[in-house]
Specification:
Helices cover about 65% and strands about 5% of the residues. It is of the alpha+beta class and about 750 residues long.
């Protein structure tokens, strides 16, 4: 039996090996865990500080925006209340910013508080800009203030009232434009035709000198026998020739001692006959020069009349080819709630189609040219008869002249000369016939010219009132100082806004011609309709600026002009001159820009009168359409317009408003008219300077030194908790928004604010 021997040594050895191997494994795990935990801690620490940095950035930006809003909440209250404008007030902006930041960063004072995100203010600064006095800034604030008010107010209060009469005003404007051009051409043409007839008559009348040297009385058909006596013309030479021959022979048949009985008479006859013959020759030379000159002037006058007739034809053709005014055309498409529609009562007759009735036809012109040619031909007959008369009369100094031939020569020259005068002299047959032909197309000229005289009187009456208004400025000395100050502020603002390119205002000179005044008034109305169409079509900045002016700046009290409806003397003028201060006519100053007490008011009165003239002339075309002749209708329409416009101005001064038209009874106030003229002339940078100058004059605030924009820079610091070096290293690689210095993270934050 085999005995098994135990192996204890081997068992002990294996157990110890296993124990040693376990100790080595456990140590490796501990080091690994430590390394893992260290990396996790490092990551967590960096992540915490990075999160704190991000939170600090966000909190800093919020704080900066809140602080800058708090600073800009201190706006100028007077500018806001009086003019709806925002600009920083008189507070210390830096102090406000520091106080706001300090209040937001201040600690609670508790010792046991834990502040996860502690921010510290390192520095702060403010940079101001965009002063209110700049055009772009001022205009932007105006737009913000008026973007809701202006379109509605303008559309309902003004444009809606003008739409119903747009078609009638358009036709009236075109008619005035045409006939204001035709009228001077027509009158000049008629003057040239009158001059043509006058020169023709003068040419024929110049022949009378020759006729008197031929025979007396003119038109005699025979030459009676005369005894030798005084000789004053060719007929006397022929009539006394027989007696001359008889006496000459009688003196030749005397005895030797007998004295000639008729020596003196014969001598006188011969000398006087020679003198008459010489005068006849000189008169013939003078006649040729005078007659040729007068007929040339007559021909030139007719040619000028032909040229003027062609000019009239060109004006009519141009009017026919000219499109309708764009402002009136666009008015037809205005969609305005509650606006009235035009009625048939406001239909102006199309007078332009009647313009051709003022032209001279080809047959009429040809007839006038034929008349001059016929007169030239008749004159040539005179020259043929008269040119040989001095030579024939020379034979009467001898005793063997052919008396019948002399008689025939004198009577022939007398007949043709007398006939010429009768045909073409003053009241001559041919001249009267041509004059009647010319007068046949002047059916209404006399009445029209009388109407034009009345229109000139009415226009002068209106201009006298405007002159009185201008003269009131001489009595408003106290206001001149404020106007000088206003001019200074205006010039300073223009200098501040370098680049203004507008001419200085000039006081308009009113025309004394009703046609020119009516045409200018219609041009203004054309401009108003075009401006309204532009605004309603989308050009809003201009509208906003104009409506802002009318809303915030007072206008002149037009009732003060009532005193000028009389003789303009007494207390009324003095009281009115007291109202010439710039504070009482700010809107007029913005509109026209005259730095004198009365210029702006006079300009406003003139333009209102012109607008009333345009509207009333349109009515006149309707009222006077039955007169027939287009120039007569135009003249009557202008007289109607002038008379009614003067009445309208009196009503406006008394009531403060007048109906737009008898066909559209919508009321327009004095302020409404100024709003229309702002639309016509406004929207420019010069008016912005005037508004800013008035704001400075009224408030004492210089808009050029009032800012609407500020930029702040705030530097905040946040203390880092862990490993600032690692954060700084990350700044190099990842690009932090701020800067790490030692153990503090700094961030400069910029915030902007604009009203």
């Amino acid at each position: 039996m085999k005995t098994l021997t135990p192996r204890p040594y081997i068992h002990h050895t294996c157990s110890r090996r296993r124990w040693r191997r376990g100790r080595h494994t456990e140590g490796s795990v501990s080091v690994f865990l430590i390394m893992v935990l260290a990396f996790v801690f490092l990551f967590a620490a960096v992540l915490i500080d990075y999160a704190r940095i991000a939170a600090a950035n966000t909190q800093g930006e919020r704080l900066a925006r809140a602080a800058i809003r708090s600073v800009m909440s201190s706006y100028d209250i007077k500018l806001k209340e009086d003019y709806g404008l925002f600009a920083f007030g008189d507070s210390d902006g830096k102090q406000l910013l520091a106080r706001v930041l300090s209040d937001n960063l201040r600690k609670s004072g508790r010792g046991d508080e834990f502040n996860l995100l502690s921010l510290a203010l390192e520095s702060s600064s403010l940079e101001w800009g965009r002063p209110l006095g700049e055009y772009a800034i001022f205009r932007r604030q105006i737009n913000e203030e008026m973007k809701y008010k202006a379109p509605i107010d303008f559309t309902l209060e003004l444009a809606g009232k003008f739409k119903p009469v747009s078609a009638a005003m358009g036709e009236a404007s075109r008619s005035i434009d045409l006939f204001s051009k035709l009228q001077p051409l027509y009158d000049k043409r008629e003057d040239e035709l009158d001059l043509m007839l006058e020169r023709r008559s003068q040419a024929a009348e110049s022949v009378k000198v020759m006729l008197e040297l031929i025979i007396s009385p003119p038109g005699s058909t025979s030459i009676p026998y005369q005894g030798v006596g005084g000789v004053s013309n060719a007929a006397d030479i022929v009539g006394q020739y027989r007696d001359f021959v008889y006496k000459a022979y009688a003196d030749m048949d005397l005895e030797e001692d007998e004295e000639p009985r008729y020596r003196d008479k014969i001598s006188n006859y011969l000398s006087q006959s020679s003198e008459v013959t010489s005068r006849l020759q000189a008169a013939l030379i003078t006649l040729q020069e005078t007659h040729s000159r007068l007929m040339e002037e007559s021909r030139n006058a007719l040619n000028e009349a032909l040229r003027l007739n062609d000019s009239m034809k060109a004006v009519i053709e141009q009017s026919r080819n000219t499109n309708n005014r764009p402002g009136y055309t666009s008015a037809e498409s205005w969609d305005i709630p509650g606006s009235l529609e035009g009625t048939s009562d406001t239909a102006v007759p199309n007078l332009r189609e009647q313009g051709e009735s003022l032209l001279l036809s080809a047959s009429e012109l040809s007839s006038l040219e034929t008349g001059i040619s016929a007169q030239d031909h008749a004159y040539q007959s005179i020259l043929q008869e008269v040119s040989g008369l001095p030579s024939a009369l020379g034979s009467a100094s001898g005793l063997n002249a052919d008396l019948s031939w002399l008689t025939a020569s004198v009577l022939g020259a007398s007949k043709v000369t007398y006939s010429y005068v009768q045909e073409y002299g003053n009241e001559g047959v041919q001249i009267s016939r041509d004059k009647a032909a010319i007068e046949s197309h002047r059916t209404s000229d006399k009445a029209r010219k009388e109407t034009e005289k009345q229109s000139k009187v009415k226009l002068r009456e209106a201009m006298d009132v405007i002159t009185k208004i201008r003269n009131m400025g001489q009595q408003a000395g106290d206001s001149l100082k404020r106007y000088d100050t206003l001019r200074l502020y205006y010039d300073e603002n223009i200098s501040f806004n370098i680049g203004l390119n507008q001419s200085l205002p000039e006081e308009g000179k009113a025309s004394s011609d009703p046609y020119s005044a009516g045409s200018a008034a219609m041009d203004d109305m054309d401009g108003i309709y075009e401006a309204m169409g532009s605004v309603l079509g989308g050009a809003r900045d201009r509208l906003f600026q104009n409506e802002y002016s009318a809303l915030y700046f007072p206008h002149f009290d037009v009732s003060g002009l009532t005193s000028l409806s009389g003789d303009g003397q007494g207390n009324g003028i003095q009281q009115l001159s007291d109202q010439m201060d710039p504070h009482q006519q700010e809107l007029e100053y913005i509109l026209y820009g005259f730095h004198n007490p009365a210029g702006n008011v006079a300009a406003a009165y003139s333009e209102i009168f012109a607008m009333r003239l345009a509207v009333r002339t349109m009515e006149g075309f309707i009222e006077k359409a039955t007169l027939g002749n287009p120039l007569a209708i135009t003249a009557a329409a202008l007289l109607y317009g002038l008379s009614k416009a003067i009445e309208d101005m009196v009503v406006l001064c008394n009531k403060g408003s007048i109906p737009l038209s008898k066909y559209v009874p919508a009321e327009l106030t004095y302020r409404d008219y100024l709003r229309l003229f702002l639309l016509l002339h406004g929207g420019g940078e010069a008016q912005l300077s005037r508004m800013l100058a008035l704001i400075r004059l009224n408030t004492g605030i210089n808009p050029a030194k009032k800012f609407t924009y500020v930029s702040s820079e705030i530097k905040l610091g946040t203390r880092l908790w862990f490993l600032p070096g690692v954060i700084k290293a990350l700044d190099y690689t990842a690009g932090l928004a701020g800067d790490v210095q030692k153990n503090t993270y700094y961030k400069a934050i910029r915030a902007d604010f604009s009203y």
